[in-house]
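Exercise 7b. Backbone tokens:
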């Protein structure tokens, strides 16, 4: 699976060592994972280019700057962070630095460092370990409750790159950063560079990818074009799957939104919501027990509903081939979509509770009250507690 690279060290983390029982169980259910031999992964997989590409054995969609993919049946092995040792890194960094981040005059490279605390075109060791551990926590809880794999990343391995690779990359990146960003990037790079490998049980075509016109021939081994994607996109099925997955996560005590993660992305946003009904970023998924109060959970859940409604807006009203173009959505549109999301999320949660799921009482208070005034008053009380509470 991997290509040897002299700058790579042995892997630092693997699922067969971190969660051997779970690994055996999911391999027994998934023939694609049965074919994955973690023990043979001595070095990180490396792709042919840091720029978008597509071939029968690997592909990188447009705007997937830190990851490429290897088809594995209907799913993929995702490889995140190997760009630091791949061809055309300089061109990719130049392209990233040449574009401004949305809503600012900062280049994308500086924006990533300052606002997202991330290294452009690279993955720090602490990021990789954090992603793997969070993904493993969610997978464990989900599998224990439902006995199947969700449409979420299944962590497989984390590798650390050598200091020689880190120094070469640091030098190349510093040439494309403003002084303050260069200083901050060096601090981030001191944590070490890594590659993170995970399995996703589908093609990772995100809502945002569907609208990237230049991505047309970089979606997989069959060179799926945007026209093909649009023709096979079923918005009703996609939206139903998103809401169902959110409800299933909430029912096991995992909240796919974090108030403290707003600048870093959320699972339910268009850049992470996959058109097969899954999510490819679990960084902001947090256990309910980590949330300090019923009011904080209520705010988190309603912000999540608003974010998912915005993803629906982008899916349905962006200029896709199967819907009428809407360049200026009416101001009422977010309210309509949020009301839809809440109603269907409530239905899914009630069905899970009827099936035996034990919902957290704070979750019930925030989303499952009746439609009377008392429920409204109680919810506003959670969101606006009296002084001293």
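Sequence design result:
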């Amino acid at each position: 699976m991997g290509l040897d690279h002299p700058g790579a060290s042995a892997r630092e983390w693997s699922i067969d060592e971190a969660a051997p029982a779970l690994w055996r169980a999911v391999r027994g259910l998934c023939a694609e994972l049965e074919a994955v031999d973690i023990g043979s992964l001595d070095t990180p997989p490396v792709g042919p280019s840091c720029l978008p590409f597509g071939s029968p054995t690997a592909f990188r969609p447009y705007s997937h700057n830190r990851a490429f993919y290897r088809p594995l049946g209907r799913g993929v092995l995702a490889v995140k962070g190997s760009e630091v040792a791949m061809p055309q890194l300089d061109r990719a960094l130049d392209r990233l630095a040449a574009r401004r981040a949305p809503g600012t005059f900062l280049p994308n490279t500086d924006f990533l460092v300052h606002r997202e605390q991330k290294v452009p075109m690279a993955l720090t060791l602490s990021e990789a370990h954090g992603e793997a551990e969070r993904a493993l926590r969610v997978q464990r809880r989900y599998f224990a409750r439902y006995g199947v794999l969700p449409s979420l990343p299944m962590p497989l391995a984390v590798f650390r790159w050598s200091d020689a690779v880190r120094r070469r990359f640091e030098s190349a990146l510093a040439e494309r950063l403003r002084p303050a960003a260069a200083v901050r990037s060096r601090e981030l790079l001191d944590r070490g560079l890594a590659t993170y490998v995970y399995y996703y049980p589908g093609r990772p075509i995100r809502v945002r990818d569907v609208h990237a016109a230049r991505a047309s021939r970089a979606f997989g081994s069959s060179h799926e074009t945007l026209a093909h994607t649009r023709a096979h996109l079923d918005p009703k099925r996609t939206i139903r799957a998103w809401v169902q997955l959110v409800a299933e996560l909430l029912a096991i005590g995992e909240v796919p939104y974090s108030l403290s993660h707003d600048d870093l992305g959320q699972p339910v946003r268009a850049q992470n919501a996959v058109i097969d009904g899954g999510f490819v970023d679990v960084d902001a998924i947090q256990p309910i027990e980590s949330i300090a109060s019923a009011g904080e959970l209520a705010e988190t859940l309603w912000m999540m509903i608003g974010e998912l409604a915005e993803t629906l807006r982008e899916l349905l009203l962006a200029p896709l081939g199967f819907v009428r173009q809407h360049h200026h959505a009416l101001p009422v549109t977010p309210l309509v979509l949020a009301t839809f999301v809440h109603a269907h999320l409530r239905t899914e949660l009630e069905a899970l509770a009827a099936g035996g799921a034990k919902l957290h009482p704070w979750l019930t208070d925030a989303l499952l009250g009746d439609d009377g005034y008392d429920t409204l008053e109680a919810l506003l009380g959670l969101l606006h507690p009296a002084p001293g509470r």
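Instructor comment: The longest helix spans residues 294-317. The chain has 15 helices and nine strands.
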